[in-house]
UniProtKB/TrEMBL annotation:
Pfam families: PALP. This is Cysteine synthase. Belongs to the cysteine synthase/cystathionine beta-synthase family. The keyword DNA-binding does not apply. It is an enzyme of class 2 (transferase).
Length: 299
């Protein structure tokens, strides 16, 4: 009798593909990790399941409990999927500026949404989540401080990158929001080869890029360890969106704005190094940004 996978078992082992046209003439190899191929469509599927599964294993939560989380989008969608699989009620708090597709995806999985103003942003959403938890209205998994977030990448994403490149990876470029991807991958990859460089991306002043943040000091994720990032790049809105559109039109990779920023950073890095194997994290798919107009034809 055949053994069939569950939806949980389809998280991870995402493709790593070579960029063919955007890099131009170069002796470097530029690769893209297609995290949009996860079941709920983003890299956040990994920590979402990890945070719930590990909390269950410790006895901190049990099916039927209410979970609360502040999110700008991808983590919320991933948690909504994981909560649906495992039988939890989920309340998500997010800025009203999040795209319509993201909100509808969360609701499709059965999550309850609470919106805060764009002015209050993610800081306001995080404050509200903490307040609800103090009132006993549910448990906050807290992706920003939960070690089970980077643990998912230490156990999954990092080893996959090492295996898929046969240990030849020299640089990893990833957007930094909660910083879980950068922290977990860095911890694993530097155990394998301390010379591997981790490049984290943050938005340039004035940029508003979903999934990438320049946090005020008071809200800096507790899982973040500065020593695990070798270099931080500032990425502009224009550069991220332009690279995102070029990825779709020239590489056939349909992704979101922060993924465009990651590849923009990799292309910039490629001008500085030789004989390198540079990996970018394509953290989600472009279809959850269509209503924002970022893919509309430009004059």
């Amino acid at each position: 009798m055949p053994t069939y996978p569950t939806i949980e078992s389809c998280i991870g082992q995402t493709p790593l593909v070579r960029l063919q046209r955007l890099p131009g003439p170069t002796g470097n190899t530029l690769l893209a990790k297609l995290e949009g191929n996860n079941p709920a469509g983003s890299v956040k599927d990994r920590p979402a399941l990890s945070m719930i599964a590990e909390a269950e294993a410790r006895g901190d939560i049990k099916p039927g409990d209410t979970l609360i989380e502040a999110t700008s989008g991808n983590t919320g969608i991933a948690l909504a999927m994981a909560a649906a699989i495992r039988g939890y009620r989920l309340v998500l708090i997010m800025p009203e500026s999040a795209s319509r597709e993201r909100k509808q995806a969360m609701q499709a999985y059965g999550a309850e949404l609470i919106e805060v103003s764009a002015k209050d942003g993610m800081e306001g959403a995080r404050d509200m989540a903490d307040g609800m938890a103090r009132e006993g209205r549910g448990r906050v998994l807290d992706q920003f401080a939960n070690p089970d977030n980077p643990l998912a990448h230490y156990r999954g994403t990092g080893p996959e990158l090492w295996q898929q490149t046969a240990g030849e990876i020299t640089h990893l470029v990833t957007s930094m929001g909660t910083t879980g991807t950068a922290m977990g991958c860095s911890a694993f990859l530097k155990e394998m080869n301390p010379a591997i460089q981790i490049i984290g991306l943050q938005p340039a002043d004035g940029a508003s890029i979903p999934g990438i943040r320049r946090w005020p000091q008071a809200y800096l994720p507790k899982i973040f360890e500065a020593a695990r990032v070798d270099r931080v790049m500032d990425i502009s809105q224009e550069e991220s969106e332009d690279t995102m559109r070029r990825l779709a039109a020239q590489e056939g990779i349909f992704c979101g704005v922060s993924a465009g920023g990651s590849v923009a950073g990799a292309l910039r890095l490629s001008q500085e190094v030789e004989n390198a194997t540079i990996v970018s994290i394509i953290c989600d798919r472009g279809d959850r940004y269509l209503s924002t107009g970022v893919f509309a034809p430009r004059d």
